[in-house]
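Can't paste images in this forum, so I'm doing it all in text. The chain is below; anyone willing to post the predicted structure tokens underneath?
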Amino acid sequence: MIKLSNINISFERPIFINVQIELTAEAFNVLIGESGCGKTTLLNEIGLLNEKLNSDYLFFDNKLNNHSDFALKRRIDIGYVFQENYLFEKLTVKENIIFAANLSGIELSDDEVYELLSKTKTQELIDKKINELSGGERQRVAISFALAKKPKLLLFDEPTSYLDQENCYLVIDVIQQIVHSNETIVFVVTHDKRVIASADNIFKIKDNKIVCDKKIKNYLKFNDLCKRNNILSKKAIKGYISKSKKHISKLLYLILSLVTVILLFNVGYSNYYKEYVEKNIINNTMEEIRVYYGPNKRKSVNDINKYISYDILNKIKNINGIREAIPFYEINAHCNDNEILIQTYCNELSSKVNKSYENNSNIYVSSSMKGLLDNDELSFMYFDKLYDLKINGILEDTYQNGYSDNGNKIVYIPVSKFNELFRDSVEPYLYILRFDNSVDFNKVVEQIKNIDNEITIYSTIDIDKLQLLNSQLLAGVENIVKAIMACIIVLIIYDKSRLIISRKHELALLYANGLSKKEIIKILFIESLDYSIYALVVANIVSVVILLLFYDCTFNTFISIVILNAILFISLNFIMLVVSNYLLNRFSIKALLEE
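Text version of the structure:
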């Protein structure tokens, strides 16, 4: 016997006030009443579909309370047949029956499945897909599904509402067989006069009360001789996940692509900027970073007030990241009554040559000097001594004096050649720094200033402007990344919403058959988790391969990428979890069962 007393349920208005109902076995128990009077509400209370009890509930001499395990009761002792004959569309008829039994911890043989379907005259449908069945066939299979767990209580919600005459009486006949089997208490909510005419106990809701019009007292002494297997129940859930995850949207692959693009875009840009700095500041043959005592400007030689001492120079050379400090010299000489300059150079000038000569002296002259040459030879006087040099080439007109205001008639000599010709005759005005590729330029500047704060550090590139440009570019990239990530999040929310809504009745059926909300959320999470792990592995492989092909990255870079990918996919799964929980709360499972 099942007895509910002191039933008090209210929503916007009172539904039941201190009422009771008692259900017995070997009786066709039917509940009738006008639409909106509370029939489905009472069915949910009896079926433990509400999150808390609103009554004193006696279930076969076992008093239930709000601390009872409702999910376990639903899974083992209560069967449901709904108006919409919900079944698992991805499974065959046989697979549905086996799943229902396994979920409650019962293992059925093929013969037992066949026998169970025979009770509802659906044994010929055993291998068919659910979407291949007619409405009447689906309803009878739904009854077999509910019976598979061998329930103590079987609830029907409008089981004949959409059936023709033939299928209606087939369903009524099946229900009567269940009633007379003396194994299960049957409770049917209906408007159908054909069902009402077959009833033994007719309960009617009127004026917030429950009245029994017909009553046959038969009490069931239920002996649960069926051994339940919890391990089998867990296997059933795993089997369901395996079937259902094959139909998950492929949106995760799109997410994978977008996340990978974001990752590689950032890594690629970081590498690009690193190479750009190395090329344009640190190791570019046409750009320089100079140290000296004087004003911070390009042509500073005329204003240099003192030379860098050897002690200071050695300290600068010992700074980590500085590869070498190349001296720059400039002297005045005379050629055919013309005042000329002799300057050292350390940059590659061959690309700036307008006219070359067949020798390897690596000595060049500015374009304004070409009238002073004798073929490839140049003679000049320095401190009353005559020098004859072989000239390797004449430079383009655009290559001008970048160190002083002393004129543009210049002979460019390598430092080693200058020292050979004019050793100890002059001190270097400044030093040009060369760096290791991994140098932190700002840190080097700070260390030089710590050695002597009066030293000027000048770059032919406007570093501040370059850093500002980089900051702007990085800000732009960051905004793009944020926009893409926002799109991904919106797509995930949309996809999870669509997926859950499309399966809402299937999820409701799982809930009705004993799965808690927590277990359903876990199923939704696990379904996506496998794809996420797969996507994470693919993203890491693709990232590493592309980095190896196009960029020179360290082991730490690879580790950073793996960690970044992991964080991204963990975040995505967390979002999916939150969305699943939100939707299951918003689209109440109980409400879905009432649709």
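Confidence is low (pLDDT under 50) at residues 216-227. The radius of gyration is 44 Å.
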